[in-house]
Amino acid sequence: MNKISELISLLGGTGFVAEKLNVLPSAISNWKKLNKIPRNKQEDILQLSSHLNVDIEKFLPIKKLHNVKVKILLIICGGIASYKSLEIIRLIKKTDIELDVVMTKSAQKFITPLLVTSLNERKCYTELFSVEDETKMNHIKLAREPDIILVAPASANIMAKLANGLADDLASTILLASMSKIILAPSMNPVMWNNLATRENYKKMLDRGIEFIEPDTGEMACGEKGTGRFPEPKLIFETILSYISKNQILTNQFKNISILITAGPTIENIDPVRFVSNKSSGKQGFEIASELTKRGAKVTLVTGPVNIPLPNCENVIQVTSAQEMLDNVTQQLPADIFICSAAVADWKLIPKTLSNKSFDVSNKIKKTNDTLLFETIKTPDILETVAKSNLRPKIVIGFAAETNKVKKNAYSKLLSKNIDLIIANDVSNNQVFGEDFNKVCLVDKNNCEEWEKQSKKSVAFHLANKINDLLTNYDQ
Ligand code: CTP
Q1: CA distances (Å), 470 to each of 36, 78, 110, 431, in order?
Q2: Based on the domain organization, do 286 and 396 belong to the same domain?
């Protein structure tokens, strides 16, 4: 009996699994014959096995279980800021987070469930007592399935209901029946926000472990000034991403996967005080190392000299020059994935006299010397060396820093260096190096995906999802 047949029998047999997964028994027989479970059914099998207490890892290699998805339920309350929740939906939809949306009656005075449904491409829930909804997705399921319930905007009314345990509509019933993490992003008039009743409700909820994305201070839509303005949707989205990472909701996604990352600049010394380098801060590579570590990967980071704190990952190796970086990288092979985000200095400069004599570079070169010339020597291309080596990791990802023809140049690098995916940056006008934000374009053999400008943390989050897809496809 092969592994998948054994698993199906432990899960209750072909008929039972077929019924639970809503597929034909012949499909299950086929999986048993092929000894393989299709990617889009692995999560269902995972869920079924957790209910039945079957140790799934014995049957499906853990590397095939990456696509465990985060589920979020967004509750939209009524207020001037209701329309801003549409932007939150749009941002979440760009990730592979699964999103359901509930709207209160007041929210529907500002935006319609139809609009939300079209944006989210899923039914938007509004009714507590709906025969149709209760048979398909009842309110208890809506309350229990998500990892996070985000209430945005959260009105003074929903805060009062939640603080006092009221359950008189779908949103408040879900909040009361939920065991998920609840995060509120309030928006209301400053006097309402500062009202003692709201303050007390706020405090009660904090004590119960409910989190808040605090409202902004400034001028309100009604013209009054104070605290109560809805935070920027982007900030709310990023807070949610941080929460997912911090709380390790995806903690096992890259379990048993080794990832080697280069980051930062390299420094090529000319003499004891002068050198050639570039403006790379290492921020993007460090964010990637952090994100993948949080998702369970064994990350080794080889970094050039930087001025930011080192990320928390399995192994950090600090180097100076390109040659040192290459030596340390090759020592770390084999690895499952290689991500080359370092801005490696491309040349070493060797100082020469006019008559082509070398200087003693163990001492500082004096200005009193006659004319100083430089011989340029190309540094080794770390990415290319690894991608064309016998120990090539199964996925190799490079970056491309370009000032013009960004996509075209990135595509050429993809082909010439034998890379699976290039993250291309437009570095003209100093807009990437050292900044906290990044605008990238992902180039592979068939596609070019433009990502909107976002924080380097958010790029790392999305890139981790992309790597997850690449790995899952690789394993098929
Ligand atoms: N890279 C590398 N070793 C080098 C130069 C670059 O590993 N000596 C890697 C970078 O980490 C990046 C990719 O190659 O992942 C592209 O780097 P980039 O600086 O954009 O381009 P280069 O290949 O150096 O070519 P050019 O400077 O001519 O654009």
Answers
A1: 18, 40, 40, 29
A2: yes
What pLDDT score was predicted for residue 63?
44
Are the C-beta atoms of 183 and 231 separated by less than 8 Å? no
Same domain, 16 and 120: no
Q: What is the pLDDT of residue 251?
A: 72
Same domain, 385 and 416: yes
Distance from residue 470's CA to the centre of ligand 1 (Å) = 22
User: Do 399 and 416 sit in the same domain of this protein?
Assistant: yes
At 228, give phi and psi (nearest 5°): 155, -5
Within this chain, do residues 95 and 185 fall inside the same structural domain, yes or no? yes
Using the 8-state DSSP alphabet, how is residue 363 labeled? S
- Running along the chain, 476 residues long, what does each successive block of 10 average in pLDDT? 89 91 90 81 75 73 54 96 96 89 97 96 89 70 89 98 96 92 95 96 92 91 86 92 75 86 97 95 96 92 96 95 98 97 97 90 88 94 98 97 94 97 88 82 94 89 90 70
Instruction: Compute the distance between CA of residue 91 and CA of residue 83 in angstroms, rounded to an integer.
Output: 14
Same domain, residue pair 175 and 275: no
Instruction: State the pLDDT at residue 194.
Output: 96
Instruction: Take atom 14 of ligand 1 and give the residue whose Cα is closest.
Output: 383
Q: What is the DSSP string of 417-467?
A: HT-SEEEEEE-GGG-STT-SEE-EEEE-SS-EEEPPPEEHHHHHHHHHHHH
Helices 233-246 and 456-475 pack at an angle, to 10 degrees, of 50
Query: Angle CA(263)–CA(265)–CA(268) in degrees, nearest 5?
Result: 135
CATH number of 385's domain: 3.40.50.10300
Ligand 1 pocket test, candidate residues 333, 340, 377, 422, most atoms within 8 A of CB: 340
Q: Which atom of ligand 1 is nearest to the CA of 401?
A: 20
**Residue 268 Cα, ligand 1 centroid: separation in angstroms?**
15
Q: 188 and 299 share a domain?
A: no
Question: Does residue 57 belong to any structural domain of this protein?
Answer: no
Question: What CA–CA distance (Å, rounded) separates 41 from 20?
Answer: 11
* The ligand 1 atom nearest the CA atom of 422: 15
| CA proximity to 413, closest of 393, 379, 385, 443 | 443
Q: CB within 6 Å of ligand 1 — which residues?
A: 322, 340, 342, 344, 346, 379, 381-383, 398-401, 413
Range of the domain at 41: 3-51
Q: Which residue shows structure tokens 């190796």? A: 317
Q: How far apart are CA 413 and CA 416, in angstroms?
A: 5
Active-site residue 313, yes or no?
A: no
CATH no. for residue 232? 3.40.50.1950
The Å distance, Cα 393 to ligand 1 centre, comes to 18
pLDDT computed for residue 140 by the predictor: 83
**Where among 250, 277, 294 does a domain terminate?**
250
Kindly state whether residues 164 and 125 are assigned to the same domain: yes
Neighbours of 290 (CB within 10 A): 20
